[in-house]
Amino acid sequence: MRPHVEVIQEGDYIWHAAELVGGEGRASERRLSVDEEDGSCSLRVDFHTDWGRGPGIHHANTEYHVLEGSMTYNGKEYGKGAYVYAPKGVPTEAITFSEGTRILHYREYGDAGFDPVESTKAPRWKDAREDVIVIDSEAMKWDAVPNPGPMPGMFIKYLHVDPVTGFYTRLVHAQEGWTDHRLAHHPCYEEAYTVQGHMEYNFGTLDLGTYFFRPARVKHGHFTSMEGGATWLLRSDGELYNWYTQSEWVRWGGQSINWGPGDGRLRWSMSSHDMGVGSPGRSEADLADLRASVEYQRKQGEIDEDYVQHGTGTDKSLIAIAKAMDAARLQGGHGDHDHDHEHDHDHEHDHEHAPVNADWGADPRSLEHADERTDDLSHVWGAGRVWKKGDPIPAPILSSLPVRSRTTGRWNGDGM
């Protein structure tokens, strides 16, 4: 399982010698995210000399995308935007990169192994499927994103779609002013590297060279696309459905035992609202875009609430707690006797309260995927599952401290 990375600036990552087995030349890689269980990884690679290797078979589903420079595959040269998908176990042609070329390089479900072969007529692995894909993405046209929900202004170029698993790689562009004020989670993971532009959202700033890897079901959103729009190379390990949330809140806390001032008896509590207090927050232009997103949804006939920036207005967690307390009183938790005193002093009660089951809404366990506790991914709550319409929609996962870098990983918990 890869960690939740949100957001890192690639410039904050160190360089390693590139793990490109069997190639001739020098290259370095930045490891944006790595799964040490199955070998999957997302890399930024720079070629310091001309580099190449002959025909062979990759041990992982492998992708190359040229950010700058040139690539030659099977004798044909491609420039910026070139993309190659090489399935695991399928013979591929010779590939070379010119000195100074910068690429994104992905390996999925396998290690960096590469077995040289005489030609692409060599036999495939028994379990191999799909064929090699070579695309000049710069020559492709942008299509409107087909998924209903967000306001217009988002466009897509499909580079690869696995017909069995739904795993797909695409370029996505949000035009300036594209906005979505709702938080979303998905049944699949989502990762993206920003290749152009600038977008703000609840986890921070997405601009050139920023990257995130978000496991399935982690909430994210409140998007506003800035001047010039923004473009990403984006990947998911299954079909992406948007499940939206509004009026979101989180509160957590506890009592210290052996830390804190004095004798350590420190009670503390924090909410997502508190994390927004005193923070820079959204600009007036951002807030105007977010309000426009609300109006768009209302015009579509959707039930929608005004967008309220975290740290302003009423703390929604307090409203939720008050409602839960009302429900508890109705259940007899504290309504079967009257006394006007506080509980912050020490005394013994010779009576017991009835057990209380406060109403916090749906039990998240009732929303689990049918296989979530039994399949071979059951050890990872944030792993994606194949989802189809009619299945229970799983509850989101709280991930309050993702991996983030020192320069771009600034966020205030907006929406968490």
Structure write-up:
The structure is a single chain. The protein is mainly β. It has two domains: 129 residues, Sandwich (Jelly Rolls); 234 residues, Sandwich (Jelly Rolls), CATH 2.60.120.10. Helix content is 9%, strand content 34%. It contains three helices and 26 strands. The strands form five sheets. Strands 1, 16, 17, 18, 19, 20, 21, 22, 23 and 24 form a ten-stranded antiparallel sheet that branches. It starts with a strand and ends in an 86-residue tail after the last helix. About 1% of the residues have low confidence.
* Helix/strand/pairing category: mainly beta
Number of strands: 26
- Provide the low-confidence segments as ranges: 335-339
Oligomer: single chain
User: Within the CATH hierarchy, at the fold level, what is the topology of the largest domain?
Assistant: Jelly Rolls
Counted by DSSP, the helix tally is 3
According to CATH, what is the class of the largest domain? Mainly Beta
Q: Rg from C-alpha positions?
A: 25 Å
Q: What is the count of distinct domains?
A: 2
Span from first to last CA? 22 Å
What is the 3D form? Answer: globular
What series of H and E elements makes up the topology?
A: EEEEEEEEEEEEEEEEEEEEEEEEEEHHH
- The CATH architecture of the largest domain is Sandwich
Quick one: CATH superfamily of the largest domain? Jelly Rolls
Mean pLDDT: 89
The helix fraction, in percent, is under 10%
Give the amount of beta strand, in percent.
25-35%
Major β-sheet annotation: 10 strands, antiparallel
